[in-house]
């Protein structure tokens, strides 16, 4: 039933009722329905002891490649296939086991962490006494005692604290990275209950929304049953203490649990983001489809040719093996069985181990970013963080960078510059985020001081800025509640806030004679110029949000009620009815052009009747349980009107170190940079010029509300389109990026309102076209774009628009605040800056870096290397598997299509697992085709790998053809050499296993030497792995065929390898075939490097020439033994291919 206190009741069901202390409500008030809630156990693990094997197997076999090899393995078990099931089962088992061990170990660590959290002790008030229990046994409705520096065990509603005003201070660094102390409030009716027995007497219920993951939103109300009428009070995020936050500067608090366990906001934020896939992974999947088609084609061809070959009865049914009548009639089943057998025989062309190698390369390679000392920021004490390693190579493919301005390009370190009151400008000396610079002893006045009549207006402006904020005063030395530091001019207290702007403004007012002292018992105290303490009752706070772009406070002083409002000029001027608007507007525009951040300040006096109306509007909105935000926004809109303009402020946000150099380097690399900001156009444009996004010769094109008011949007768009296309001749800028110096640079500026109009669906009619396409056409021909007055959702819309454009470019979004999260999640790669606006961006990003300048090395060096390495890895895997399987295909033409394997089972099994896996893994981790210093100095090298150039279809086809060529050389080279069957000195003939072993030996050495020729960066690890893998193959072959293994039923390879090596012609054939296989690739590269070198290859040649001169100088100055040592060290490859491998030699 609905009782009188249920103000703002709606028809909502998505809520819960919590009984504080598990006490039933008084009879006749409401029905007592005890709801069931989960306990406080946190479970971040995926598996249990019982479900690990089935659940992990299910997840692994959901991958197409694993499922494919499982089917092949089952086929080998069911039907008579030419190869042992071990050949498919062992690699599959290896892949599954390695992955399961890795995932199992990670989950075991999560179990350990969960147990540590779930078993930590908490203090609960029970029957007037404090009892201790484990955190996992906490229930919704329990009253919890939390002491200073303890973390909150679940989501709590604050009831009371050790402080008289019922407030407490909390840090949420573990949730959002904000280290500042935030203030939380107890309800007025419960804040006096600050002892266990008193708290136990509280009789109340809480109605609130069901759990949801937004850390900054909470809607509820508390119904307190007193002797008289029940009292309802609103509850919001200012009353909610989140699990994981820590109590600070407060001795203790009492609070009631409302969300526990996996329903806490922190646990709900565990949910992983949507999976992003890189362009390389998409190419890899496309190649797999092609090779699967090749596999099926091979199987079909061999099956058909087998029956053609068997059409001769003498070949199909020799006299010693005639078929029965039943066998002759089962043609269809036999054909299908033969097809499956050929599929099994050729299935190794699909490399199952490639998936494991790629995963290991990404996982291990990500540590190079985290270990990079050049990406360590000493000021923050932070290194780069990799939240996902799946996108490493995508860092080398970025075409568009979308960046926030404040805190990303700038330091978010605000310095108060000036304020303007009714046209009079005040400029205090250097005040920067609470730090008063030496020598700042007074106040400079640009204009003359106002007259006595305007003095009251001036002081009202200063008071407004001292009162309209959420700044806290952190005290280091207090005596009897008086801040001696402030009174004596000592820095014993300082201001902290989640917004650096507010700190700068309050410090600015301090330098101008008005000092904010503190907020105590609902009263704000300020110290005026006469050293008198003024007290104001804080009645309401209308909090800031990114939609309104303003905040307000309602205060009472000496019977007068004032509403003070500050915000962006675009949100204040339309609500102003009087004041010196023109003078203030002119000063705001001048400051914006200089790149300063501006805010306007206004006020409104409220009489008792108006305040009562305001109070009722706010109270109704605050007590609403459904659409509270919407109702509050409507109430704020009605209250913040009919304002009187007081003046404006200007603060400076300095550009980050090397931000301009980073943007310039990105431009040279062919990356387009867009700035998406909520700031006004003039301020953002000044920052863009300072950061070299726009140059002085850049022709600025405006697509703003001001211009669309003069012309229609349709006309403006078509005019801008004609302007850029007239210069570029109808071609996009990318077409002639190399000739950028010969064409006009265009920069586009668009604001949020115009963007909304552009993003609307295409208008009907002859004069209207598709505005999105026209807008994209203009943007493609601009070197840089500035989007100002952007809402967070619009930032994501811009990124999505570019992603979905015709070219499908790779996008990167970078920002530091919660308003950047949407675009970070939308972009292909999201990077968070460890800034001063919390860690929401860092938590939701794929990578996190301390400063914007680190983006340069992340893209131009790490991204470049990652892409080069993994593209070689993917192409090389397919290449070596073509070399591996194509001789098997050719062999069927010489064995009557009988599915006879060419290689031994051990070789089939270990080829991808042992013999050829480690060299390519090491290459993909350590290869540096160009020194990283050169990559940083010459950003143009980034263009050589743009648009997935190393994994395009022509390159893929070349590698495939090269693999087929090598396979033909290996097979037919060995075949023709075997024409002389007396291969050994004693006249003994070689058999088919010796033939297969010879081909396999040439194969292993060829693909390994191929990788060695492609390696540019040699270390002792490379030498050890590459030559060690070849030695391992030889040793294994000697042991496998030189010992009688008791666990084998038969040994067809016994003494085969030793017999082959005892033959001189076999040695000669191995050397000749390896040389013949590698020679065309070597010749092709020499010709291409000579006639059509890329920028990268020109750099390599220049580097080699420089190093040659250094070596020659060293040769003349050193002694002979040292020279001999150097010659021994570097002569491995240079005798084969000087033009190609000298770079390798000297790295």
Features:
P-type_ATPase_IV, transmembrane helix, 1147 residues, disordered N terminus, 13-stranded mixed sheet, 45% helix, ATPase-coupled intramembrane lipid transporter activity, Calcium-transporting ATPase, cytoplasmic transduction domain A, EC 7.6.2.1, alpha+beta, 5 domains, disordered C terminus, 18% strand, ATP binding, nine-stranded mixed sheet, elongated
Description:
This protein has five domains: 15-22 and 123-269, Calcium-transporting ATPase, cytoplasmic transduction domain A; 40-119, no CATH class; 358-366 and 864-1104, no CATH class; 385-409 and 656-724 and 745-757 and 771-849, Rossmann fold (3-Layer(aba) Sandwich), CATH 3.40.50; 414-447 and 454-475 and 492-654, Calcium-transporting ATPase, cytoplasmic domain N, CATH 3.40.1110.10. Helices cover 45% and strands 18% of the residues. Residues 1-13, 430-448, 477-491, 730-742, 763-769 and 1118-1147 have low confidence and may be disordered. The N and C termini lie far apart (82 Å). The strands form seven sheets. Strands 16, 17, 18, 19, 20, 25, 26, 27, 28, 29, 30, 31 and 32 form a 13-stranded mixed beta sheet that branches. The chain has a nine-stranded mixed beta sheet with strand order 14-39-38-37-15-33-36-35-34, sandwiched between helices. β25 (515-520) and β26 (523-527) form a beta hairpin. The protein is α+β, with helices and mostly antiparallel strands and 1147 residues long. It is a multi-pass membrane protein.
């Amino acid at each position: 039933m609905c009782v009188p206190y249920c103000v703002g009741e709606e028809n909502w069901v998505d809520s819960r009722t919590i009984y504080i202390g598990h006490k039933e409500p008084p009879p006749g008030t409401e029905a007592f329905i005890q709801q069931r809630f989960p306990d406080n156990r946190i479970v971040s693990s995926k598996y249990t002891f019982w479900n690990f094997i089935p659940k992990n197997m299910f997840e692994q076999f959901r991958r197409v490649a694993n499922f494919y090899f499982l089917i092949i393995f089952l086929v080998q078990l069911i039907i008579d296939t030419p190869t042992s099931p071990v050949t498919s089962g062992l690699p599959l088992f290896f892949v599954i086991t390695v992955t399961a061990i890795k995932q199992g170990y990670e989950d075991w660590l999560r179990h350990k962490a969960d147990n540590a959290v779930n078993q930590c002790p908490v203090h609960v008030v029970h029957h007037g006494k404090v009892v201790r229990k484990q955190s996992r046994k906490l229930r919704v409705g329990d009253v919890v005692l939390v002491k200073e520096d303890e973390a909150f065990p679940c989501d709590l509603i604050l009831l009371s604290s050790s402080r008289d005003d019922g407030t407490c201070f909390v840090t949420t660094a573990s949730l959002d990275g904000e280290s500042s102390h935030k203030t939380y409030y107890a309800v007025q009716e419960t804040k006096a209950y600050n002892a266990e027995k008193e708290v136990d007497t509280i009789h109340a219920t809480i109605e609130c929304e069901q759990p949801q993951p937004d850390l900054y939103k909470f809607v509820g109300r508390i119904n307190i049953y007193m002797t008289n009428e029940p009292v309802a009070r609103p509850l919001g995020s200012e009353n909610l203490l989140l699990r994981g936050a820590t109590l600070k500067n407060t001795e203790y608090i009492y609070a009631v649990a409302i969300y526990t366990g996996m329903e806490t906001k922190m646990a709900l934020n565990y949910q992983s983001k949507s999976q992003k896939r890189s362009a390389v992974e998409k190419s890899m999947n496309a190649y797999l489809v092609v090779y699967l088609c090749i596999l099926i084609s091979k199987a079909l061809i061999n099956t058909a040719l087998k029956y053609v070959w068997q059409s001769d009865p003498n070949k199909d049914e020799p006299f010693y093996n005639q078929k029965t009548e039943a066998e002759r009639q089962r043609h269809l089943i036999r054909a299908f069985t033969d097809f499956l057998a050929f599929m099994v025989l050729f299935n190794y062309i699909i490399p199952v181990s490639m998936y494991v190698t790629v995963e290991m390369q990404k996982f291990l390679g990500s540590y190079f970013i985290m270990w990079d000392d050049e990406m360590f920021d000493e000021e923050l004490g932070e290194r780069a963080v990799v939240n996902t390693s799946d996108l490493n190579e995508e860092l080398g493919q970025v075409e568009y960078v979308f960046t926030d301005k404040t805190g990303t390009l700038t330091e978010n370190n605000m310095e108060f510059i000036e304020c303007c009151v009714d046209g009079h400008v005040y400029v205090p000396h250097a005040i920067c985020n609470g730090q008063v610079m030496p020598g700042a002893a007074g106040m400079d006045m640009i204009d003359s001081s106002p007259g006595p009549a305007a003095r009251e207006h001036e002081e009202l402006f200063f008071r407004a800025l001292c009162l309209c904020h959420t700044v806290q005063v952190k005290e280091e030395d207090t005596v009897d509640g008086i801040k001696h530091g402030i009174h004596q001019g000592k820095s014993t207290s300082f201001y902290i806030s989640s917004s650096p702007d507010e700190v700068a403004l309050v410090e600015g007012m301090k330098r101008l004679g008005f000092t904010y002292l503190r907020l105590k018992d609902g009263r704000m105290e300020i110290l005026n110029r006469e050293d008198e303490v003024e007290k104001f009752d804080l009645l309401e706070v209308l909090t800031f949000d990114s939609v309104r772009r303003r905040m307000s406070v309602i205060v009472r002083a000496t019977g007068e009620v004032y509403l003070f409002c500050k915000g962006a000029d675009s949100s204040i001027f339309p609500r102003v009815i009087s004041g010196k608007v023109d003078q203030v507007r002119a000063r705001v525009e001048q400051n914006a052009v200089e790149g300063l951040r501006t805010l306007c300040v206004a006020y409104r006096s409220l009489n008792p009747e108006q305040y009562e109306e305001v109070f009722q509007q706010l109270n109704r909105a605050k007590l609403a349980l459904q659409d509270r935000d919407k109702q509050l926004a409507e109430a704020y809109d009605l209250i913040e009107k009919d304002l009187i303009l007081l003046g404006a402020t200007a603060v400076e946000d300095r550009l980050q170190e090397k931000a301009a150099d980073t943007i310039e380097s990105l431009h040279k690399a062919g990356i387009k940079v867009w700035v998406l900001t909520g700031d006004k156009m003039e301020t953002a444009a000044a920052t863009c010029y300072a950061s070299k996004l726009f140059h002085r010769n850049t022709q600025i094109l405006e697509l703003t509300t001001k211009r669309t008011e003069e012309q229609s949007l349709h006309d403006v768009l078509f005019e801008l389109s004609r302007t850029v296309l007239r210069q570029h001749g109808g071609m996009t800028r990318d077409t002639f990026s190399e000739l950028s110096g010969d064409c006009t640079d265009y920069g586009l500026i668009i604001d949020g309102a115009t963007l909304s109009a552009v993003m609307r669906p295409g208008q009907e009619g002859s004069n209207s076209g598709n505005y999105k396409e026209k807008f994209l056409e203009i943007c493609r021909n601009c070197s840089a774009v500035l989007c100002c007055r952007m809402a967070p959702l619009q930032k994501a819309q811009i990124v999505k628009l570019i992603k979905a454009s015709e070219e499908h470019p790779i996008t990167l979004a970078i920002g530091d605040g919660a308003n950047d999260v949407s675009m970070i999640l939308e972009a292909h790669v999201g990077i968070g800056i460890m800034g001063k606006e919390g860690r929401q961006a860092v938590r939701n990003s794929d990578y996190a870096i301390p400063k914007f300048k680190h983006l340069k090395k992340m893209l131009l060096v790490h991204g470049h290397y990652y892409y080069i390495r993994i593209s070689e890895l993917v192409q090389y895997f397919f290449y070596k598997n073509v070399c591996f399987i194509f001789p098997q295909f050719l062999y069927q033409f010489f064995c009557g299509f009988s599915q006879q394997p060419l290689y031994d089972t051990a070789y089939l099994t270990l080829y991808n697992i042992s013999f050829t896996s480690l060299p390519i893994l090491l290459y993909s981790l350590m290869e540096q085709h160009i020194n990283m210093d050169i990559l940083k100095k010459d950003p143009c090298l980034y263009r050589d790998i743009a648009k997935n150039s190393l994994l395009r279809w022509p390159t893929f086809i070349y590698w495939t053809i090269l693999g087929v060529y090598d396979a033909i050389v290996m097979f037919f080279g060995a075949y023709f050499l075997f024409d002389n069957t007396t291969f050994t000195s004693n006249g003994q003939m070689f058999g088919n296993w010796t033939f297969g072993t010879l081909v396999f030996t040439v194969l292993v050495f060829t693909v390994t030497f191929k990788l060695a020729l492609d390696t540019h960066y040699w270390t002792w690890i490379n030498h050890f792995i590459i030559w060690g893998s070849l030695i391992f193959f030889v040793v294994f072959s000697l042991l496998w065929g030189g010992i009688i293994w008791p666990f084998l039923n038969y040994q067809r390879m016994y003494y085969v390898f030793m017999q082959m090596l005892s033959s001189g012609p076999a040695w000669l054939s191995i050397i000749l075939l390896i040389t013949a296989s590698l020679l065309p690739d070597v010749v092709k590269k020499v010709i291409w490097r000579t006639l059509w070198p890329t920028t990268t290859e020109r750099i390599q040649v220049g580097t080699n020439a420089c190093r040659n001169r250094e070596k020659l100088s060293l040769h003349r100055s050193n002694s002979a033994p040292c020279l001999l040592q150097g010659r021994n060290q570097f002569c491995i490859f240079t005798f084969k291919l000087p033009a190609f491998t000298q770079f390798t030699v000297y790295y």
